[in-house]
């Protein structure tokens, strides 16, 4: 009797185990699913809702963008070139761009990733057609010697921004289709190289070498993450770097930019090719640790060209100082890393296209923000690239939010799968 009293009660054990198993199959939140993709130290992943942290970070960046675009452009009507504009002209337009982009992002969020995978090649082909239209006189719009925009009345659309998203989708779709022959150069790498070459020819004809560098990084990054043979990948990178070097060697304009970057304070360059760089460096120097105060930039008073677009980071550095620059860099690093984590989770769930596409978008944001910040800080030669989510521009904000909405859709479908449902 004493022995029987000490034994555990096994009655009903089978029923309790069956109940636990049923709740696990239904996705009960009492049985958390571990994000094992992040490694042994990764935290458990919530299996309900959206990535609210990513959403709030993007919202804060957009709010900060409105403040800084207004600050950087408020004095522009003093110039004869912008004399017909109101002081709040660029703020109002940027606010409208953000509103339109938000609606587009909400609509995009409703589209399943399987639909994007189906239409990826056709979207890429449509983008090529738009790039060709940009080069046709009376259709494409030229500004400062570059023909990169298609006028749409309320805004000037820049097809190269759409091409970044289209390349992320097309390269991911391509790797899924070529997964079984990814070790074969002719079958796996050569067709992608031809596609990238066509894009390069069209973008360099505008010219827009900065956008081509970002798109090339997206394509090569997805090839590498998709498992292309290491030697073939290194060969592709070497060929691409060689092509960039040849473009610089045989282009007087680009060669002078490199010389100006190497010696910006040289009197031969300070008032010419290095004019933007020298004034950007002056802005950062004036900002010191905590800045001159919001609205107190001197360089934005017609000294620093494109202060509200390509060189917005310099205005941030001058007005808010080193601390704000570090915070902005950290935020973009966090966004890039978070997008990569979502992509890795999708791959772990055997959703190769969704994972590679998300990581391609992460490469896009990481590469473009790195190049823009590097140009502003004098680490890289001057290129005409905006800072994602922050710089003024309708096409950039629109495609940035659409791309992030697609990433959120990937994350949402990941969570649905982890709850035991279907994507």
UniProtKB/TrEMBL annotation:
GO terms for cellular component: cell division site; plasma membrane. The chain crosses the membrane at residues 53-75, 96-113, 119-139, 185-205, 211-228, 233-251, 311-335, 347-367, 387-408. Its main location: membrane. Keywords: Cell cycle, Cell division, Cell inner membrane, Cell membrane, Cell shape, Cell wall biogenesis/degradation, Glycosyltransferase, Membrane, Peptidoglycan synthesis, Transferase, Transmembrane, Transmembrane helix. GO terms for molecular function: lipid-linked peptidoglycan transporter activity; peptidoglycan glycosyltransferase activity. Pfam families: FTSW_RODA_SPOVE. Peptidoglycan polymerase that is essential for cell division. This is Probable peptidoglycan glycosyltransferase FtsW. The lineage of its organism: Bacteria, Pseudomonadati, Pseudomonadota, Betaproteobacteria, Burkholderiales. The gene is ftsW.
């Amino acid at each position: 009797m004493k022995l029987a009293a000490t034994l555990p009660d096994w009655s009903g054990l089978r029923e309790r185990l069956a109940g636990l198993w049923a709740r696990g199959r239904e996705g009960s939140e009492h049985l958390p699913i571990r994000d094992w993709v992040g490694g042994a130290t990764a935290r458990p992943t919530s299996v309900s809702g959206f990535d609210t942290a990513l959403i709030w970070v993007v919202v804060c960046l957009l709010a900060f963008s409105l403040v800084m675009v207004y600050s950087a452009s408020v004095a522009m009507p003093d110039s004869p070139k912008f004399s017909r504009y109101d002081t709040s002209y660029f703020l109002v337009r940027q606010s409208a761009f953000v509103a339109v982009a938000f609606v587009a992002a909400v609509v995009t969020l409703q589209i399943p990733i399987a639909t994007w995978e189906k239409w990826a090649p056709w979207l890429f082909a449509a983008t090529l057609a738009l790039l060709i239209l940009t080069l046709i006189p009376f259709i494409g719009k030229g500004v400062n010697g570059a023909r990169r925009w298609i006028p749409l009345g309320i805004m000037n659309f820049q097809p190269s921004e759409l091409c970044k998203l289209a390349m992320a989708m097309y390269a991911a779709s391509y790797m899924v289709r070529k997964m079984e022959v990814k070790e074969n150069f002719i079958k796996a790498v050569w067709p992608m190289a031809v596609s990238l070459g066509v894009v390069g020819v069209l973008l360099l004809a505008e010219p827009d070498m900065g956008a081509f560098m970002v798109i090339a990084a997206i394509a090569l990054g997805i090839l590498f993450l998709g498992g292309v043979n290491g030697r073939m990948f290194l060969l592709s990178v070497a060929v691409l770097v060689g092509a960039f070097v040849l473009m610089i060697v045989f282009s007087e304009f680009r060669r002078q930019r490199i010389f100006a970057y190497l010696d910006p304070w040289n009197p031969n360059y300070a008032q010419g090719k290095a004019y933007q760089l020298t004034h950007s460096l002056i802005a950062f120097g004036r900002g010191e640790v905590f800045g001159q105060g919001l609205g107190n930039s001197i360089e934005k008073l017609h000294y620093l060209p494109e202060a509200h677009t390509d060189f917005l980071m310099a205005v941030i550095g001058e007005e808010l100082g080193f601390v704000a620059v570090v915070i902005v860099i950290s935020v973009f690093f966090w966004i890039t890393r978070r997008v990569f984590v979502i992509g890795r989770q999708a791959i772990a769930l055997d959703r190769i296209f969704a994972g590679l596409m998300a990581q391609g978008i992460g490469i896009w944001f990481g590469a473009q923000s790195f190049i823009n910040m590097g140009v502003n800080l004098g680490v890289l030669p001057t290129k005409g690239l905006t800072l994602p989510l922050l710089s003024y521009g309708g096409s950039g904000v629109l495609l940035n939010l659409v791309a992030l909405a697609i990433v959120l859709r990937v994350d949402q479908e990941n969570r649905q799968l982890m709850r035991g449902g279907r994507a």
